[in-house]
User: Fold these one by one.
Assistant:
Number 1:
Amino acid sequence: MTVRVVVWGENVHEQKNKVVAGIYPKTMHGTIAETLNAAGGVSATTATLQEPEHGLTAERLAETDVLIWWGHAAHGDVSDAVTERVAEAVWSGMGIIFLHSAHFSKPFKRLMGTPCNLSWREAGERERLWVTSRNHPIAAGLPDHFELENEEMYGEPFGVPEPLETVFISWFQGGEVFRSGLTYKRGAGNVFYFRPGHETYPTYHDANVQKVIHNAVLWANNAQPRIAKVTEAPNAPVETALEPITERGPKLHEAGEEGYR
Amino acid sequence: MTVRVVVWGENVHEQKNKVVAGIYPKTMHGTIAETLNAAGGVSATTATLQEPEHGLTAERLAETDVLIWWGHAAHGDVSDAVTERVAEAVWSGMGIIFLHSAHFSKPFKRLMGTPCNLSWREAGERERLWVTSRNHPIAAGLPDHFELENEEMYGEPFGVPEPLETVFISWFQGGEVFRSGLTYKRGAGNVFYFRPGHETYPTYHDANVQKVIHNAVLWANNAQPRIAKVTEAPNAPVETALEPITERGPKLHEAGEEGYR
Amino acid sequence: MTVRVVVWGENVHEQKNKVVAGIYPKTMHGTIAETLNAAGGVSATTATLQEPEHGLTAERLAETDVLIWWGHAAHGDVSDAVTERVAEAVWSGMGIIFLHSAHFSKPFKRLMGTPCNLSWREAGERERLWVTSRNHPIAAGLPDHFELENEEMYGEPFGVPEPLETVFISWFQGGEVFRSGLTYKRGAGNVFYFRPGHETYPTYHDANVQKVIHNAVLWANNAQPRIAKVTEAPNAPVETALEPITERGPKLHEAGEEGYR
Amino acid sequence: MTVRVVVWGENVHEQKNKVVAGIYPKTMHGTIAETLNAAGGVSATTATLQEPEHGLTAERLAETDVLIWWGHAAHGDVSDAVTERVAEAVWSGMGIIFLHSAHFSKPFKRLMGTPCNLSWREAGERERLWVTSRNHPIAAGLPDHFELENEEMYGEPFGVPEPLETVFISWFQGGEVFRSGLTYKRGAGNVFYFRPGHETYPTYHDANVQKVIHNAVLWANNAQPRIAKVTEAPNAPVETALEPITERGPKLHEAGEEGYR
């Protein structure tokens, strides 16, 4: 079963910034999709901010097993409607992976319920990622640590809820640490945040980073059919209660009425 | 140190529905505040939907240690601005307790990042709450289980993230179960969801329910000063890095520039 | 990749008790292994208390992807050496599933670090299991609830640590509730506790129960190679530190010395 | 209500090693107890390995709200009986704080159910602890990071279960990271692991470290009465079931019989 992946890219700095365009002549999302397809077991395509509905129509999300999100300069341009649609797809079972500056993207903040802030420094310093959960599927085939010689620093405290599992923690040359790989579940959807990937460095050309993203796609994929009507709050009528009961006391609702929302 | 509590009530059915007005002649929020004040260690006041800014101005939230939220018929009438203000107060350290139908309130959904849905039945059936975390501060002084002879049923699956701790699970006469007491943390704020409290039954006159709410207030209170600028993402300049580093590689940002949001 | 499963059975009541022998003429472990093999993707064999080293030699565990454990009357007869060997296999990546009365087995208590106690009643009452984590891989293909007409009751509080995820909660006819499906991780090993399976009832002939166990085997399997020397605490010499450092201050340990344990 | 603390010290290197004796002329446990008493709200005494029953009789544990544990060279000399007694006290509500090399102590391994291993280097390098959970009670009054100029390095992966909360993460000069402050709950007992404290450095004279330990004592204290018979698995007789049920089907147990353990 091939995992159907959409790599969503903001696609701004690749078009406007010569440094970024030079490092990623095929764009960042294009590069990530290409390496995923090369890694196998995955069929990855791309979508961008500039497309109608940002390339994320209801039809497309229904056929997406795992969505990867990279954004930075244009978080505010993502529509609230698409944000909510993405969140609903996650709740109903779509996996999602947020990369680097996507910590401030609308879908990530929507799913976390927290500020998602951090401290940062753009100095091209050394980052070293340590695996904190040995043999976690997302760390499969990796050494116990690996380095990125030039990266932007992200520092704690990271304004997110306590994760399900902490998979990576980063050491930075300038003295900070950061929880770089965190798993969450929101509804039936698996969520992974992965820190590296500042656009002025060749991070997504790094073999270890590529392996993490490929592993995370396989981990995030939920093979089961998507949950229908995932936000519904169904009434369970007295007449069909699993154990026989008799209605008692005063009521607000008429039979068959929907609940308040 | 007295814990400053605001009990927020939607205040709709107390005014419009004779049954509810009969059970709660002092309103639901008024009743809860009164019993908290009688229990000691707490200074509880009330706020309602109908007041300007729903009674929750920035000034008032700054002086609130723990906010209690009950709403049902008018979730949609709560303004997005007040919802966001409440969320920020929680992140910065205010405790919050959501009661019963507040599972569908805007602040709860905002903080959870999930649908927060469930199944339900209004039949006045018996509910029995079991303590699943022995000696949890929220269960202090309670027996290992207690009953509410007439309650609305809420059934699993409950559309919330995996909690920090499950404190209560309910058994329902009609055959369902529900995780009735769940703790979360969002930023520096302690969050507790407590299931019982349908407005057509005298639940908030029950001594065990009152004890849970009083315990939860003491548990949710964070004695430390509120965090300022809780959503800020500060830049850490190269010049003042904790370990001496030299800037390397290309950059997006000018010195002193704010990050993208 | 076929998942290699060993179903461990205490094998006491099947030999001594006519009722149990009548329900499980092929033994409980034999029945579970047979249904797993029939479900596909799995190669299941059995091991019992009475075999040398309880059938769980180091060699056998090394070739076991997932171990299933059922015990009840003879927990105390399991050797401490085998218990520790099983725990080490789990830490290094073997999955493990504990069924019913195995809540009091030595390996479960060893891995949990808690009393693992509960309340109980043997009255053949109705149990209804509710799925609390929609589309969890362990609940794949199940309805949102299912019933076992005759089961032993287990009641909360269940003396275990807060789980990674709660997958099932049981409703009992006599008024109790129980967290019936709980996931944990211990080292690289996935752990699942599943409540049903009292030996005087035909629980392991139930299609839904069989599906849960099969799903749990697939979920617990960790495809990666087992971690070698999983309890080792390696010294990281100054000479090969990842960042150049100079040794400073007084020392307890000579170079190359092992740490205290 | 004064919190009654016992600081347990192995008391070996203070007696045998001149460096350690020079830094801690009042012993390590004596120093920690002294600073706790000076901080207020606490009544701290000490106990050591060499005393009968290691100074931890059942009577003494019954009167201890929070136990602090430091050991290193003589983990193996701690009796299994005292280890189990400590674990039971924790389950029944006693708080416990494990310091530094106590990661390999018998009580910590007993409560975690995992190897509790790590990598290490004794080179007097710089450690910087970052607060990852803002305004956590254990971090009250601390800056967002603090440094220890000379410490032993502990590196990930740390062989412990996923914690309830991660409060501190350490950066090390030599390039490693470590989850330095972790909370757990075992039964009714709050558990905190805090990394710093190698005996050849003056760590427990550091004001920030002292503040963390004092905060952790207040956090770990559970004001409720200790749970009696915390490992018991009571039978719930059919006759007194909360909902009327009739016994059905075959049975293993006679009425009033104890369950198997």
Number 2:
Amino acid sequence: MQNRFWRIARRPEGTDFSSALELVEAPLGPLAEGEIRIRNSHLSMDAGTRLWLTDREDGYQPPLPLGIPMTGLVLGEVTESRAAGFAPGDLVRAFGQWGEVSTVDAVMSGALKLDPTVPDRRAWFGPLGMNGWTALWGIERTGAAKPGERVLVSAAAGATGVLAVQIAGLLGCEAWGLAGGAAKCAFLTGELRIAGAINYKAGDVGAQLDAAGGFDVYFDNVGGGLLDQVLTRMNHYGRIAVCGLLADYTGGTRTTPREFDQVLMRRLRIEGFFSPDFMHEGPALTERLRRWHEAGDLVMPYDVTTGLENTLTAYARLFTGGNIGKVIVELEP
Amino acid sequence: MQNRFWRIARRPEGTDFSSALELVEAPLGPLAEGEIRIRNSHLSMDAGTRLWLTDREDGYQPPLPLGIPMTGLVLGEVTESRAAGFAPGDLVRAFGQWGEVSTVDAVMSGALKLDPTVPDRRAWFGPLGMNGWTALWGIERTGAAKPGERVLVSAAAGATGVLAVQIAGLLGCEAWGLAGGAAKCAFLTGELRIAGAINYKAGDVGAQLDAAGGFDVYFDNVGGGLLDQVLTRMNHYGRIAVCGLLADYTGGTRTTPREFDQVLMRRLRIEGFFSPDFMHEGPALTERLRRWHEAGDLVMPYDVTTGLENTLTAYARLFTGGNIGKVIVELEP
């Protein structure tokens, strides 16, 4: 049986993914002990995976080698299993491959059997997925947000940001979002009804932040120059939870905060976090997220692209700010 | 009665303090209710006070206005009191004035009656003073150093650094120091017997750090380029306790970490701290420090300059790296 998948041919420059990734076809081999095979129904597009494509040794993990299939979170049904606890027909989420089929070691890939009664399985990527865990952890643990505090989230219309602002509100905070464009801001204040949204593409961000007032927690997905704008508007003893540095991922620049000394002047805490570090708390996080989600208090818009061959277009949208909510590739059955 | 004191005439450039501060004489007025008068025996020279001389609104506190006496920690005997709990003859420490006499509000100045039986009263500036509190708090609380961890301290031969490396050792950590010059390093490894010292003025700091191995805690007094060198050598989940940014105080530069993204890659925590924030825990901190100090496990070399007229020479040494240990001006009786 053949599998079509995206292979890493070269290191990408910026957002030119079509020169770096190529759609190829290869036969599927037999399963090794401990492996499962998944017929992917959905691929999750996540900005963090961009780091794995870069030839940089001091990232989260060593770069993915050239020549292998691109790795990412997938949803789908198990078609074949040589791993205990997994049987054909099971709905699973795993770190698999951008292809029609994922072949993974059940343990190494973090494969998780999912409750198939959840009405929209895509929720396992968003509110009930890694984005949900990340948003909850970053607001509550790393950001240590307390009821009544003022919380600002960057890339607030992105998958993690959408959840982070809602969770901040659910935890009794006043939630604000930074987003690029009027449509995103309207979504945040209109549909999500958060306290305020700041369009960093319109006018003077500093003046808009000044008008908003100081923040106790900054959940940062972006880094770059926005971080400097926020550093000088943090309240004393504020916390900055660094979830991502989107500004660095494709532009070849690096976040170098010019206002770093505010860490001392305002006694701020800046801390990076990363979901694989708290996988063991995943079930407890999911339970809380699911309660909010089922009550309709934690919603997620999906930005869906159909067809494996259109994956790179969907992926690029993460870096050009084209999406509201979770970017997903839906594969044709 | 006349008082001689250092008056802030202009904002200093770099370490040219003699153009900014002038030694003047003025009559002492009567005490207001709540005030005490102290015959200063010693002045504490502290790098952090340099910030108060700068015309920058976003520092710790508003800049000291021009025309007033320079403020700093002083030791001495009370000569006159209109404050409850203070009587002539009491030995006190307070935020007073760089002069022969300090006139302060007992509460606002944080005036503290000291045990006169401590053999060397200068200890109230060092191990039993603000430097001691800062070192203990930064290592144990902000740095959250745990036994067995590897702790690196910058400006390790400075007053706070000398205490921080010793306290790290007393708490069961492996203590390393960064210092400028062979004499300071020899002092750290020889007299203080810490695990290792790195001379950042000699050769390749990066290579020396690589040879030392990763660190779990960085107690940073300096900022600047050294911070970048250390950021890429921190162990995952490491903590950087930002005590000072000496590199910024006189050079007109600002610490802008180029390796900031290591916060995310290594999930580091960077946090600023400042002793007035934990004044209320001072007595408990002092008690622990005093036990170590009396047992001979927490020592401090003093860099003493005699005579009020020589104050600026002593002060400048903080910024040119001329001192080992606590810089003090001793006034002639």
